[in-house]
Structures are given as C-alpha cells and as structure tokens.
Amino acid sequence: MKFIDQTVIQVIAGNGGNGCVNFRREKYIPKGGPDGGDGGDGGNIWIESNNNLNTLIDFRFKKIFQAEHGMNGLKRNCSGKKGSDITIHVPIGTKIINYQTREIIDDLIKDKQKILIAKGGWHGLGNTRFKSSINRTPRQRTLGLIGENRYIQLELLLIADVGTLGMPNAGKSTLVKNISSAKTKTSDYPFTTLNPILGSVEIEHKRFVIADIPGIIQGASKGKGLGINFLKHLERCKILLHIVDLCPIDYSNPIENIKAVLHELKQYSVKLYNKPKLLILNKIDLITTSKINQYVKEIKNNLNIKEPYYLISSLQKIGTKKLCSDILYYLKK
C-alpha cells in the first residue's frame, strides 16, 4: 500500500431547504389559513479518527466531499427532510489545517475523536411561522442558508514514543525489526526503507511504539534523498535514537556521518534537534574492539554530544535488550 501523509480536500456542507408558502384549501373551510412548512437543515461534514487506518491513500483520487442538501418545506405544515451528514475517516495522528489561512483546526490523536468541519445551512421558515393576529394570510417565507464550503489540508504525523534517525544502511530497520513486531524490509543498499513504519516493543510487561523512517543524507534539508520528507513523523516522539553505522559500506567516516545527520536535523527544525536523543553505535560485531574504542574516544573529544551512547549489533542482537530497558526507563522519566 502506498504511504500518503498529506493531502488537500474540499468539504461542502449541504444547503438548508427553503420555507414553503401555502394555504389550506379544504371543503367547508374557505379560509383555512397558512400551512407552509419549514425547510430541512443541510447535512454536516464530520472528520473522525479511526485506529484501523494508517495512511491518507483514500484521498488520493477522491478530493471533494459534499453533504446532502435539505429539502424544501411542504404544505400541511410538513417540514422538509434534513440532509444526510457525511463522516470522513482519517488515521489517528491526522492534523487538520485550514488550507487558506494555515490555521490548525484540530489534531486528532485519539481513536474515535470527532470534529465538525463544515456545518450545513440552517433551514428556511415557512409562512406558518409568520402568522399573527394582524397578519392572517402571511406570504412571507425565508430561504435556507448556504452550507459551509472550505478547503482542508490533512497532514498525518505518526504517533510513536521512540523514533529512529540516521544515515541509510545504519541498521535502523534491522533494529526495529528485531526488537518489535514491525515487518520492515532490510537489505544492504541505501533507502531500503521508503516509508515510515511503526512497531510495538514489549519488555518487562510494558510496551512502547517505535517508528522507523527513511535515512537522512548530507544535503537532505535542501531536498536530497528521502528522509527530510518524513522527519515530521518524529515530531510526536519523546525520544530519538540516533543510529550510527560503525562499518559503513561506502567507507565513510562514522564521526562525519554523525555531524551530517545532526546538521540536517537542526536545519529542518531546532525543536526536533533539541529532543532527547540516545546515540546508538551499531554493527560492533563487524569491527575490532580497538576500533570501537577509537570511535568512542573521538566522539567524546570532538563532538559536543551529551546524550548517552550504546554499543550494539542490531543483527546479532548484542546490547539491544539493555537498550530497550533503558528506553523504557527514559520514557517513564
């Protein structure tokens, strides 16, 4: 299934039905008086979050949602039928934005959360409503009001406790796959992960959700690669795992890779850059102990990184259990 996390739709609420002008015409009742009924209200449009959805792909081709108009009033004081409402279902984590003003209307972060997004027009009044002691044969009525018509931007931000961050092939997907229920694709070529994936990690009878997003490369903030398009999915995360490949297949310097990722993150969002991070030095099974110690020494001496670091192997599951336990501890704090 294609992952779509942003779209613009048009929502058109129903118009209210017009009031009716009518007078009773019955045998032996020559002056029956007014009996024109009111119109029906126009249908509303609602947006509701649904736990069974994880992408906005349903809006790829259907962009216009229109509720039913209210029916006009009828004789014999019969009101017109109300227009049917429409409920649009979106994934949990969908942010609703007014496309014209850029105002955030609501943020649906719970299941079954519902919001009225376009209100139907109010019904018109029939001539019965205008009857009085001095106006026995009213010919007035009112027209139904037009329903709201607006353009809405839907933006999906995944809800996860922990997010992964790093260069392509750093081992992010392998780590997420081995510690959680996520069925991520892993391989030895860049950008194996094309879309964000969520996984649930259960440890010590507790659970947290981890998000795997595509890797970031140097120049990502200027449009290179894929990762910058999905960094917004880390905004809701409480902790970020900065995963570093200690044995890159392109023979790049792991220390320079750390600097590049942090630079791109800061260029994208200072708020995201300042989130709590854990530095994960991955693939320790592929290099010698002396090389590992050299990298750790360089990180301490050359990088102003205050967050804790972990030495792990995602593939061999070395150090991953302690990492998960510590993540749980940090989440509690």
UniProtKB/TrEMBL annotation:
Binding site for Mg(2+): S173, T193
Domain of life according to the entry: Bacteria
Gene Ontology MF annotations: GTP binding; GTPase activity; magnesium ion binding; ribosome binding
Chief localization: cytoplasm
Domain Obg, chain residue ranges per copy: 1-159
EC number annotated for this UniProt entry: 3.6.5.-
Binding of GTP, residues: 166-173, 191-195, 212-215, 282-285, 313-315
Domain OBG-type G: 160-332
Pfam families: GTP1_OBG, MMR_HSR1
Cellular localization per UniProt: Cytoplasm
GO cellular component, one term: cytoplasm
Cofactor: Mg(2+)
Keywords: Cytoplasm, GTP-binding, Hydrolase, Magnesium, Metal-binding, Nucleotide-binding
Any one GO biological process: ribosome biogenesis
Class in the EC hierarchy, top level: hydrolase
Cross-referenced NCBIfam families: Obg_CgtA (TIGR02729), PRK12297.1 (NF008955), PRK12299.1 (NF008956), small_GTP (TIGR00231)
HAMAP family in the record: GTPase_Obg
Similarity comment: family membership: Belongs to the TRAFAC class OBG-HflX-like GTPase superfamily. OBG GTPase family.
Subunit organization: Monomer.
Function, as annotated: An essential GTPase which binds GTP, GDP and possibly (p)ppGpp with moderate affinity, with high nucleotide exchange rates and a fairly low GTP hydrolysis rate. Plays a role in control of the cell cycle, stress response, ribosome biogenesis and in those bacteria that undergo differentiation, in morphogenesis control.
Name recorded for this polypeptide: GTPase Obg
Organism taxonomic ancestry: Bacteria, Pseudomonadati, Pseudomonadota, Gammaproteobacteria, Enterobacterales
